[in-house]
Amino acid sequence: MRVGVIGVQGDVEEHIVAMQQALKTLGLRGEVVSIRRSGIVPSCDALVIPGGESTTLSRLMLREGIFSEVLEAAERGVPVLGTCAGMVLLAKEGDEEVAKTGQKLFGLIDAKVKRNAFGRQRESFEVALKMPAIGEEPFNAVFIRAPCYVSVGRGVEVLAKLESEETFKALNMKKGECIVAARQENVVAVAFHPELTDDLRLHHYFLQNVAKKAP
User: 79, 139, 186, 191: which could join 146 in a potential S-S bond, CB 3.0 to 4.6 Å?
Assistant: First the structure.
């Protein structure tokens, strides 16, 4: 298995290390490569779009010819994991911030995204997130300038929501629809940074339940 991490911007190295560890602990043979130019995506069996600055990430992928390759790969069934900025880019519809910057979205998940749902960098936080798809024990999710999906279509599986009254109070937000992990067929999007923890369950879920079922 060859896993490609989009390497033009964002926390690329952390994703590479986490995915390498996930492959090893699952006993899967494979390699993880950084994608900085066109021509590499077609050789990959799974793809990761990391966190970073979503507008910059989108523009650099377009400039390097990677954007169209990722879209084509996903449409033919190649598994894609998007985290934070990656979650923004995977959405079908953006909010006013996305419209203002004119950033191009993949539209691979039938969802509307709120780009900076929790404020700026200083409003970063961690929360024990219930995510039954990866196990009973809560996942320590790290949110940094994170987005969320405010609505999803019928074909989207919601993997996790922020529902705690205490969390919303601490963030000075009104409780409402706040989807922070979702899946549509071969595409998984999360608002947080799983690569910044030692918990590999999300990577295991992606490799075992999404990548292994790919055509």
Answer: 191
